[in-house]
Amino acid sequence: MAPASDSESVNHEIRLVVQAGAGDRDAFRELYGRYSGPLLALATRMVGDAGVAEDLLQDAFVKIWHAAASYDPRKSRPFTWAVTIVRRTCIDYLRRQRGTALDPARTLELENALQPGSAESPRQTTAAHEDAERVHGALAEMPAPQRTALELALFSGYTQAEIATQLGEPVGTVKSWIRRGLLELRDHLNRTTP
Amino acid sequence: MNENLEELATAYVLDELEPSARAEFEARLAHDAELAALVRDLEQALTARIHALPPRPPRASLLTEIEARIQPAVVGRGALTRRHAFGWGLLGGLAAVVLIGVGFAVFQSLHRTSEVGDRRPMVLIVGLGSGRSSTVRLPLKTTASNPDARFIGLASLAEQYWEKPDKLPVSITPSARHGHGYAVFDPDTNQGFVAVQHVPVLRGGERYHLWLVDTATGSVRDAGILPLEAATRGIFSFSLPGAPDKHAAQTGFFITVENSDAESTVVPRGQVILGRKPI
């Protein structure tokens, strides 16, 4: 069976969210089946603890269920919408843990975790592995400060201003790194996607 | 695109905009195709980065734990309002689903046609009045055969008519006693939406039931229960089981009030509220 095109996949996920918002448990379960793996990976990367990440994922999916009725596909794709809910849930947790103080040790831990090409897993499908390779290839091509800023923006829970403070760089510079990092990742994927 | 917009788009995708800035950006997004394309690209990059993380399947019990939190297990006869695979539910927040950048504008425009032998896929718009109904068959101006895209298009159409009743291509005479409604139905996929307004509040032990009728043969199919309860208006999705009946000459709908204590409702027995029941 040929894989669904990106737009077909997005359409199907929009439908699942709409139906889940209408109280359809089967649609919600399918959405969970599609999203729980990558969203748990995201939560684990953000909070650094697999057990805590699972608890936060549970909280996030409860929020997803309740928020599905108000999902607007004009504003974002379903997966991005779900990512936002997970990230907010994790950021709330991290801020409760941190208080108001930034945590240099956590930043260092995250920076050390930024190893391009270190995401291989035997459980990934061949296609998923190739996709991951492309992403890590893009990250490896980025200048280190840009890569660090981008990864912190995605996974640390810090705002861009806080990242600038952590890195000792002007906010404008960090924002530019993050913006260019995401755009370069996009460009690399467009160039290398078969 | 200028750097300022790119920076805003990045902040938007990373969920860093303040609520007012976010609302302003989303308002612009609705009308700026180039900006929408940029946001889509950034979202794809973000998605790809997340999918490149080491995969982590959650513990086997997690879904069960989530479901226990979102709704306690329901047991007992009559407790369920879902009758079919896709069930019923109140649409919310799905105004004008235009899949910007995805490439599907399933219902760009619908044109009336009286051409004999028009073989384009058709959608039925059924107006529901007190004891009467009227049906218009409109061709789809789309090549989208994907059921998901068609479902989303139906949802968009249903909401469009809800927000702009003057756009409804069938005439309905609202009844002060029974209200009025309409249905949007895709006979090729057996999916549709039904909307009702100002229907009477149900008494205890009653429920509204939607029926599909083949007006040529008089055969009636159960389309399910509207979970209105104390409400008097709403839009609901439905899906009929079984293969689509592509040979249905004419399809109509009607809504009855049935006794919710009945073991099962396979034939309409109650009072017809909207539409016309075949004799």
Outline the structure in words.
The complex is a heterodimer of chains A (194) and B (279). Chain A has 194 residues and is mainly alpha-helical. Chain A has nine helices and no strands. In chain A, helix 1 crosses helix 2, helix 2 packs across helix 4 and helix 3 crosses helix 4. Chain A is globular and about 50 Å long. In chain B, helix 1 crosses helix 3. In chain B, the strands form two sheets. In chain B, strands 2-1-3-4-7 form a five-stranded antiparallel beta sheet, with helices on one face. Chain B has a four-stranded antiparallel beta sheet with strand order 6-5-8-9, with no helix packed on it. Chain B contains five helices and nine strands. In chain B, a hairpin with a 4-residue loop joins strand 3 and strand 4.
How would you sum up this structure in a few lines?
Chain A is 75% helix and 0% strand. Chain A has 194 residues and is an all-alpha fold.
**Widest beta sheet: strand line-up of chain B:** 2-1-3-4-7
Distance between the termini of chain B: 64 Å
Q: Give the CA-based shape of chain B.
A: globular
User: What is the number of beta strands of chain A?
Assistant: 0
The count of β-strands of chain B is 9
List keywords for this structure.
heterodimer; A: 194 residues; mainly alpha; globular; B: 279 residues; alpha+beta; 5-stranded antiparallel β-sheet; 4-stranded antiparallel β-sheet
Write the layout of secondary structure elements.
The complex is a heterodimer of chains A (194) and B (279).
Chain A: H1 6-21, H2 25-47, H3 50-67, H4 78-98, H5 104-112, H6 126-141, H7 144-155, H8 160-167, H9 171-192
Chain B: H1 3-13, H2 19-29, H3 33-51, H4 62-70, E1 122-129, E2 132-139, H5 147-163, E3 180-186, E4 191-197, E5 206-214, E6 220-226, E7 234-239, E8 251-259, E9 271-275
Antiparallel strand pairs in B: 1-2, 1-3, 3-4, 4-7, 5-6, 5-8, 8-9
Helix pairs in contact in B: 1-3
